[in-house]
Amino acid sequence: MTIAYIAEIIGKAGVYSFKKGLAELKNQRKIDFVIACADGVTGGAGLGRNHAGYLRKIGADVLTTGDCCFFKKDMVENFDKIPYVLRPDNLTSSAPGYGSRIFKAGNIKVAVASLLGQSGFLRLHADNPFARIPIMLERMHQETPIVIIDFHASTTAEKIMFLQAARGQSSAVIGSHFKVQTADEGIFDGTAYITDAGRTGSINSVGGLDAETKIRELRSGIPEWSAEAWDKPEMQGLIIEIHESGRSKSIERIKIALPEADRERDGQN
């Protein structure tokens, strides 16, 4: 089967890029299942309920989140009712929502999990993801050999260590949160891996947000809520081919450049 993973969608430009880019990708390739990282969709940080529904409508089968999963109140209140949106699996058991689930792509079962790293996150603290791996994988393998893990982490070292802990036991370990696509994709004992899949939205920006605002923030030391950027929209991500045994056969980085958006029309969602 062929899985498309769409890198973190940032703001309205990201929603526009996802909508246009996914349609173009599906015209070119046979895609069986679509996973999208949605941690920065609404205002560049977090995911609102309306955006979740819209992304599902235009083609996402699963939406993963990370450290911004609880930033939007309307999503926090509805996590338990929206099973296609995953918050990190290694949060406290009292957290709302699901961190891992079994989905269907036609007649094939696909397990998808989101996990949060431990380094660099100040607002949200998770349990040790390395301790969670064997428990989570054992449970998922009872249902299907195909297991995709979105590892949302801040440091390269932690992501590479996570690959070593999960290699040969999962179909894919996909790094997110950097929002800059790395060029280290590969297959390791049947596990597809990349340190970071990149971002979907404005590429001429700082992580999809307005560069001038971020620079001013760094110079002054005064936190600012950055405006969303629109320059050079692009959809980034991965195409992963997985054998029915659960072992990945190939991993390919994708970058689909898109025309400048009509903000009044395409950025309203």
Keywords summarizing the entry:
single chain, 269 residues, alpha/beta, Purple Acid Phosphatase, chain A, domain 2, six-stranded mixed beta sheet, 26% helix, globular
Task: Write the topology of this structure.
Elements: E1 2-6, E2 8-9, H1 11-28, E3 33-37, H2 49-57, E4 62-64, H3 73-76, E5 85-86, E6 100-105, E7 108-116, H4 129-141, E8 147-152, H5 156-166, E9 172-176, E10 186-188, E11 191-194, E12 199-202, H6 211-220, E13 233-242, E14 248-257, H7 263-266
Parallel strand pairs: 1-3, 2-12, 3-4, 4-5, 7-8, 8-9, 9-11
Antiparallel strand pairs: 1-13, 6-7, 10-11, 12-13, 13-14
Textual characterization of the structure:
This protein is α/β, with parallel strands linked by helices. The protein has one domain: Metallo-dependent phosphatases (Purple Acid Phosphatase, chain A, domain 2). Helix content is 26%, strand content 28%. The protein has 7 helices and 14 strands. Strands 1, 2, 3, 4, 5, 12, 13 and 14 form an 8-stranded mixed β-sheet that branches. A 6-stranded mixed β-sheet has the order 6-7-8-9-11-10, covered by helices on one side. A hairpin with a 5-residue loop joins strand 13 and strand 14. 48% of the residues are buried. The mean pLDDT is 94.
